[in-house]
Amino acid sequence: MTQPTPHPQHTALSLAASGVPVLPLRRGKVPFGNCTACADNACGGRPNMKTPGPCRCPAPCHAWAAATTDPAVIVSPPWAAAWRQAVCVAYHPGGAGLTVVDLDDADAIGWARIALPATRAVPTTRGEHWIYRGAMTSRNKVRPGVDIKSTMAYARWLAPGTGLIVPLPDAIRALTVKEPSPAPRAPQTLPGPLRGDQGECPHRTPVFLERGVSMAVQRITEASSAVHATVYRTFLAVLSRHGRCGCLTESHVARLFTAAQAKGETARHCTDAWANARTALGM
């Protein structure tokens, strides 16, 4: 027999009891709009709630900033009215110390299975949510079909998911990092292979490393805009995943540089971006 779907308010109370800040979503799976007193940020809230405002409205205003773990708030009259119209529950991942990697399609899932450590996975309508322990800056479209939802963002609660939640890896943080200013007097020559001294090699087989480099080359090749930033973030992701054990060779690096130069990047920029990525990772 099919089990009845729990009422959104009941789901919210259960999540809140486990320390996950929740909020209701209305039709269209979007947050409820600000109340009359908070409309147009009359309450002093920041535009679009990019940073928390001083508002203490009892209604579920201000999207992610309204998320709460307080059961008294969740059952209060202003929220009760919202729950009667709610179609589902959302939560603030960053408020729970979590990061959600939203994989929107099969291609994005395939990339994650190669580039990221396995963690708890939750099926979505078109893809999967991968959940990691640790909060970070949220950012959409970090690569095709991939959004990152953590601080100052909300994600739909779909199911508990399967698998253990593992710590947030550097490879995900690297996707949101902007390239710093070029390092002064960066060398013009192709960097040699890295010599690792930080523990056991994480590559299960040579094929694992080869696929990771091939996907990095593909990411650069398929960049249709922001090529400069894409090259840097790709270098950063490759180094964070494969750069500490000494397995990257001159051949691997040359393939990355060749792909970047085919998109119009100069040899100088490739060398600078590689050096900056290593510096950012403390290598």
Task: Set down the secondary structure blueprint.
Layout: H1 8-17, E1 22-26, E2 30-31, H2 71-74, H3 77-85, E3 88-91, E4 98-103, H4 106-115, E5 120-123, E6 128-133, E7 139-143, E8 146-149, E9 155-156, E10 166-167, H5 170-174, H6 206-221, H7 227-242, H8 250-262, H9 267-280
Parallel strand pairs: 6-10
Antiparallel strand pairs: 1-2, 1-3, 3-9, 4-6, 4-8, 5-6, 7-8
Helix pairs in contact: 6-7, 6-8, 7-9
Amount of helix: 25-40%
Let me know the largest β-sheet.
6 strands, mixed
Number of domains: 3
Note the beta-strand portion: 5-15%
Count of helices?
A: 9
Q: Give the termini distance in whole angstroms.
A: 56 Å
Unreliable spans are none
Order of helices and strands: HEEHHEEHEEEEEEHHHHH
Kindly describe this structure.
The protein has 283 residues and is an alpha+beta fold. It contains nine helices and ten strands. It has helices spanning 8-17, 71-74, 77-85, 106-115, 170-174, 206-221, 227-242, 250-262, 267-280, and strands spanning 22-26, 30-31, 88-91, 98-103, 120-123, 128-133, 139-143, 146-149, 155-156, 166-167. Strands 4, 5, 6, 7, 8 and 10 form a six-stranded mixed sheet that branches. The chain is elongated, with a radius of gyration of 22 Å.
Quick overview of this protein structure:
It is built from 9 helices and 10 strands. The chain has helices spanning 8-17, 71-74, 77-85, 106-115, 170-174, 206-221, 227-242, 250-262, 267-280; strands at 22-26, 30-31, 88-91, 98-103, 120-123, 128-133, 139-143, 146-149, 155-156, 166-167. Strands 4, 5, 6, 7, 8 and 10 form a 6-stranded mixed β-sheet that branches. Strands 2-1-3-9 form a 4-stranded antiparallel β-sheet.
